[in-house]
């Protein structure tokens, strides 16, 4: 009985995580008159990223234009547009790490703030399921199960990625601790040698002065 409960709990957790992966991440950004607002996401390699953005303003007669730049974890420019009010960028990651999407206003647009609606889709959420359904001729429950299957695979890949990152961090921590230990031993040895030389010098000085 207890085993069935644990299996049911694990299945429920997987379904919750899968549903979260299938949903898009809508971000509402408020851009100041000067300065930049950025959104970052840690993504592993070979992951599809799709994002739509649009400037939202109460003054429909005048929409301020913005600039957008997307950079990779190593600082490479993946997307850069200026003087626009809406757009879309899509990419497949080739580097693992934090990807950065930055937005800022072009020129002078008064002292007010400007809102940008960003629809951010990553991995399984960016997949075109309508095309998959037409190509494989599936619909309804079968299509939803296919989505969940893809989401579970994405969860498995994310867990493997997190496990590899944990191993890297553990190796880095152990290397750093070993270096600190070696440096501490060397510092202690240097202090002991310096103290011994200082004692020998003082002893020689006192002997010359016939104080001892």
The biggest sheet, with number of strands, parallel, antiparallel or mixed sense and barrel status, is: 4 strands, antiparallel
Give the SSE order as H and E letters: HEEEEEEEEHH
- Using only CA atoms, what is the Rg? 29 Å
Q: Which stretches of 5+ consecutive residues score pLDDT under 50?
A: 2-23
* Proportion in β-strands: 25-35%
Let me know the number of strands.
Answer: 8
Describe the overall structure.
The protein has 212 residues and is an alpha+beta fold. It contains three helices and eight strands, in the order H-E-E-E-E-E-E-E-E-H-H. The strands form two sheets. A four-stranded antiparallel sheet has the order 1-8-3-6, with no helix packed on it. A hairpin with a 5-residue loop joins strand 4 and strand 5. Helix 1 crosses helix 3. It is elongated, with a radius of gyration of 29 Å.
Q: In short, what is this structure?
A:
The protein has about 210 residues and is α+β, with helices and mostly antiparallel strands. The chain is built from three helices and eight strands.
Present the secondary structure layout.
Blueprint: H1 2-22, E1 25-31, E2 37-43, E3 48-56, E4 66-71, E5 77-84, E6 86-92, E7 97-105, E8 114-122, H2 129-136, H3 140-208
Antiparallel strand pairs: 1-8, 2-7, 3-6, 3-8, 4-5, 4-7
Helix pairs in contact: 1-3
């Amino acid at each position: 009985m207890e085993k069935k409960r644990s299996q049911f709990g694990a299945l429920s957790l997987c379904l919750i995580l899968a549903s979260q992966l299938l949903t898009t991440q809508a971000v509402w950004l408020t851009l100041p008159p000067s300065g930049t607002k950025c959104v970052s996401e840690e993504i592993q390699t070979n992951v599809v990223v799709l994002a739509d953005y649009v400037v939202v303003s109460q003054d429909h007669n005048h929409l301020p234009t913005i600039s957008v730049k997307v950079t990779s974890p190593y600082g490479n420019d993946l997307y850069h547009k200026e003087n626009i009010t809406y757009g879309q960028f899509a990419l497949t990651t080739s580097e693992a790490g934090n990807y950065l999407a930055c937005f800022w206003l072009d020129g002078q647009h008064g002292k007010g703030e400007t809102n940008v609606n960003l629809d951010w889709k990553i991995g399984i959420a960016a997949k075109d399921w309508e095309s998959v359904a037409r190509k494989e001729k599936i619909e309804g429950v079968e299509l939803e199960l296919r989505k969940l299957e893809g989401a579970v695979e994405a969860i498995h890949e994310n867990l493997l990625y997190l496990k590899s990152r944990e191993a890297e961090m553990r190796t880095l921590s152990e290397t750093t601790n070993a270096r600190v230990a070696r440096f501490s031993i060397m510092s202690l040895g240097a202090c002991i040698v310096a103290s011994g030389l200082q004692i020998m010098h003082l002893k020689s000085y006192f002997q010359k002065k016939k104080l001892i």
